[in-house]
Amino acid sequence: MDFNDTIVALATPSGAGAISIIRVSGPQAILIVSPVFKPKGKKVLAEQPSHTLHLGNLVGGHRNLDEVLVSIFRAPKSYTGEETIEISCHGSPYIQQEILQLLIRKGCRAAEAGEFTLRAFLNGKMDLSQAEAVADLINSENAASHQMAMQQMRGGFSNEIQKLREELLNFASLIELELDFAEEDVEFANREQFQNLISKIQTVLKRLIDSFATGNVLKNGIPVAIVGEPNVGKSTLLNALLNEDRAIVSEIAGTTRDTIEDEISIGGVGFRFIDTAGIRETKDVVESIGIKKTFEKISQAQIVIFLLEAPSALRSSLPRRQAGPPKGEKLSEISIEIEKIRNRFPQKPILIIINKIDRLSEKELQNLKTDLNVSLSGVEGSHFLLLSAKTGAGVEELKNKLLEYVNVGALRNSDTIVTNSRHYAALLKALEEINKVEDGLNANLSGDLLAIDIRQALLHFGEITGEITNDDLLGNIFANFCIGK
Ligand SMILES: Nc1nc2c(c(=O)[nH]1)N(C=O)[C@@H](CNc1ccc(C(=O)N[C@@H](CCC(=O)O)C(=O)O)cc1)CN2
Ligand SMILES: Nc1nc2c(ncn2[C@@H]2O[C@H](COP(=O)(O)OP(=O)(O)OP(=O)(O)O)[C@@H](O)[C@H]2O)c(=O)[nH]1
Ligand SMILES: [Mg+2]
C-alpha cells in the first residue's frame, strides 16, 4: 500500500439508494476532483475553504454524469488527516460506477478495506484501539455493543492505558537514571512509591482483564441454548422470542434436525437463541447427528433453557404428593432430569421452563406451581418459569429472567469494558510482566534488572494503543474493515 496515493471508494453500501457518498482522500484529492466538478456560479472548488458544501455537476469527458453535492476537507482537518473530498451523488449503481471509474482515470486508486481508517491511525487522528472501535461501532447491533464501541472510540480505554503507561515510563526513566550513577549508589526511584504504583497498575489491569468476560459476550451476543425432549415446543419458543416464524413447528416429534440460531436484543443486550434437536433415543441417523450437535451447543451456550411440557410434567414427572414438605430423600423426576444436565454441564446456568400451560385449567396450574416449588426447592440454583410458547404468556417474564443472568450492572457505570481479544491478550501479558516487576522489587533486585521487565510491560501497553505495531498486525486489523471505511 502506498500512502502517497490518493484513494477513492464508495462510503455507502453498494446497490441502489437515495444518495451515495464517494470518498476521495490523499494529497491529490482536491486537485483531482476540482477539474471534473462544475459548481453553480463561478467559484472553483480548489479555492473553497475546508468543511464547506457545494452543489454542482460532475462532468466526465463531455458527459454530465450527475448533479452532486461535494464537501471539501483540507488536511489535516479531516477524518483521515489528509485532503479529502466527498461526493454525494444520486444512489444509482450506474452513477456510482461511472464516478468511481472517472476518478480512477484521473489518478485515484481504489481504496483497500479499512484504508481510510488506517490512514487516520497513521496520521495520528486516532490510536489503534480507537480505530478498532470504529469497526465495532459499524458492527454494533444493540445498545450494549454500541455503548462499548462508542466508549472505546472516544478514547476511554486508550486514556486509561496511556495513563498507566506514562506513570510506568516515568519510573522506568528514574530507575534507568540510577544505572548512570551506579557507582554512587543513589536511588532516584523511591521504592515504596514504586510499589504503590505497581499495586495500582495491578488493580487496574485485573479489572480490565475481568471485564473481558462481560465485554466479549456482550459484543458477540449471549448464546442461549433451548433444549428438551422432542415436541415440548422448543421451536415454538424460539419463534415466540424472535417474534417471527423462524423455525418449522409441527406436532411430529423430531421436527428440528439441525440447530437454528438467531439474535435479538433484550434490554439493549444481544441474546443469540439456539433451537436444538429434541433429545431422545433414536435410530434415525440424521436425528442422532442433530442430537449430538445439541450437546455441543449446550457446552457452547452461556445459558441453557431446559424446556418441559406441562401435561407430562404434571402426570409423570410430578406425582401428586400428600400435603406437607417432601421427605427430602426423593426428588421428583424433573429434578432428576435437571440433575443429569447439571452434572453433565456443571456451572452452566439452567433455566427450567414448563411450556404449554395454556392446556391447563386454573386449578391444575396452581397445583403445578406448588409442586414445582416443593420439588425444586432442593435443587441448587434452579430457576423455573411457566409459559405458553403458543399464546406468548410468560415470554416477557422469560426475557426479564435472562437479563438477570447478565451482569448489566457492569454496563451502567462508565467503567471501561474490554471487548477485543487482542487487547485482552496484551493486558494478560502486561500483568504478567508487572507481577515480575513486583517480585523483583520484593527481592530487592537492582534497577537494571527491574528496568527490563518494566520495558516489557510498557511494550504490551504500546501494543494496545498501536505505539508499537507492525505491518502484519495492521494488515490483519484493517483487512477486517469494509471497503470505504
Ligand atoms: N459524510 C461523512 N459522514 C461521516 C463520516 C465521514 O467521514 N463523512 N465519518 C467518518 O467516520 C463519521 C464522522 N467522523 C468524522 C470525524 C472527523 C471529521 C473531521 O473533519 N475532522 C477534522 C475537523 C474537526 C473539526 O472541525 O473540529 C479534524 O479532526 O481535524 C469528519 C468526520 C461519521 N459520519
Ligand atoms: N398448546 C400448546 N401447544 C404448543 C405450545 N408450544 C408448542 N406447542 C405445540 O407442540 C408441538 C411441537 O412444537 P415444536 O415447537 O415443533 O416442538 P419442538 O420441541 O421444537 O420439537 P422437535 O423439534 O421435534 O424437538 C406443535 O404442535 C406446537 O404447536 C404451547 O405453548 N401450547
Ligand atoms: Mg423443533
From TrEMBL:
<dbReference type="InterPro" id="IPR027417">
    <property type="entry name" value="P-loop_NTPase"/>
</dbReference>
<dbReference type="GO" id="GO:0016787">
    <property type="term" value="F:hydrolase activity"/>
</dbReference>
<comment type="subunit">
    <text>Homodimer. Heterotetramer of two MnmE and two MnmG subunits.</text>
</comment>
<dbReference type="InterPro" id="IPR027368">
    <property type="entry name" value="MnmE_dom2"/>
</dbReference>
<comment type="similarity">
    <text>Belongs to the TRAFAC class TrmE-Era-EngA-EngB-Septin-like GTPase superfamily. TrmE GTPase family.</text>
</comment>
<protein>
    <recommendedName>
        <fullName>tRNA modification GTPase MnmE</fullName>
        <ecNumber>3.6.-.-</ecNumber>
    </recommendedName>
</protein>
<dbReference type="InterPro" id="IPR006073">
    <property type="entry name" value="GTP-bd"/>
</dbReference>
<feature type="binding site">
    <location>
        <position position="255"/>
    </location>
    <ligand>
        <name>K(+)</name>
    </ligand>
</feature>
<keyword id="KW-0819">tRNA processing</keyword>
<keyword id="KW-0342">GTP-binding</keyword>
<feature type="binding site">
    <location>
        <begin position="231"/>
        <end position="236"/>
    </location>
    <ligand>
        <name>GTP</name>
    </ligand>
</feature>
<comment type="function">
    <text>Exhibits a very high intrinsic GTPase hydrolysis rate. Involved in the addition of a carboxymethylaminomethyl (cmnm) group at the wobble position (U34) of certain tRNAs, forming tRNA-cmnm(5)s(2)U34.</text>
</comment>
<dbReference type="InterPro" id="IPR005225">
    <property type="entry name" value="Small_GTP-bd"/>
</dbReference>
<dbReference type="Pfam" id="PF10396">
    <property type="entry name" value="TrmE_N"/>
</dbReference>
<dbReference type="InterPro" id="IPR027266">
    <property type="entry name" value="TrmE/GcvT-like"/>
</dbReference>
<keyword id="KW-0479">Metal-binding</keyword>
<keyword id="KW-0547">Nucleotide-binding</keyword>
<feature type="binding site">
    <location>
        <position position="23"/>
    </location>
    <ligand>
        <name>(6S)-5-formyl-5,6,7,8-tetrahydrofolate</name>
    </ligand>
</feature>
<dbReference type="Pfam" id="PF01926">
    <property type="entry name" value="MMR_HSR1"/>
</dbReference>
<keyword id="KW-0963">Cytoplasm</keyword>
<keyword id="KW-0378">Hydrolase</keyword>
<keyword id="KW-0460">Magnesium</keyword>
<feature type="binding site">
    <location>
        <position position="250"/>
    </location>
    <ligand>
        <name>K(+)</name>
    </ligand>
</feature>
<feature type="binding site">
    <location>
        <position position="485"/>
    </location>
    <ligand>
        <name>(6S)-5-formyl-5,6,7,8-tetrahydrofolate</name>
    </ligand>
</feature>
<feature type="binding site">
    <location>
        <position position="256"/>
    </location>
    <ligand>
        <name>Mg(2+)</name>
    </ligand>
</feature>
<dbReference type="InterPro" id="IPR004520">
    <property type="entry name" value="GTPase_MnmE"/>
</dbReference>
<dbReference type="Pfam" id="PF12631">
    <property type="entry name" value="MnmE_helical"/>
</dbReference>
<feature type="domain" description="TrmE-type G">
    <location>
        <begin position="221"/>
        <end position="407"/>
    </location>
</feature>
<dbReference type="InterPro" id="IPR031168">
    <property type="entry name" value="G_TrmE"/>
</dbReference>
<dbReference type="InterPro" id="IPR018948">
    <property type="entry name" value="GTP-bd_TrmE_N"/>
</dbReference>
<feature type="binding site">
    <location>
        <position position="231"/>
    </location>
    <ligand>
        <name>K(+)</name>
    </ligand>
</feature>
<feature type="binding site">
    <location>
        <position position="125"/>
    </location>
    <ligand>
        <name>(6S)-5-formyl-5,6,7,8-tetrahydrofolate</name>
    </ligand>
</feature>
<dbReference type="InterPro" id="IPR025867">
    <property type="entry name" value="MnmE_helical"/>
</dbReference>
<keyword id="KW-0630">Potassium</keyword>
<feature type="binding site">
    <location>
        <position position="235"/>
    </location>
    <ligand>
        <name>Mg(2+)</name>
    </ligand>
</feature>
<feature type="binding site">
    <location>
        <position position="86"/>
    </location>
    <ligand>
        <name>(6S)-5-formyl-5,6,7,8-tetrahydrofolate</name>
    </ligand>
</feature>
<feature type="binding site">
    <location>
        <position position="252"/>
    </location>
    <ligand>
        <name>K(+)</name>
    </ligand>
</feature>
<feature type="binding site">
    <location>
        <begin position="275"/>
        <end position="278"/>
    </location>
    <ligand>
        <name>GTP</name>
    </ligand>
</feature>
<feature type="binding site">
    <location>
        <begin position="250"/>
        <end position="256"/>
    </location>
    <ligand>
        <name>GTP</name>
    </ligand>
</feature>
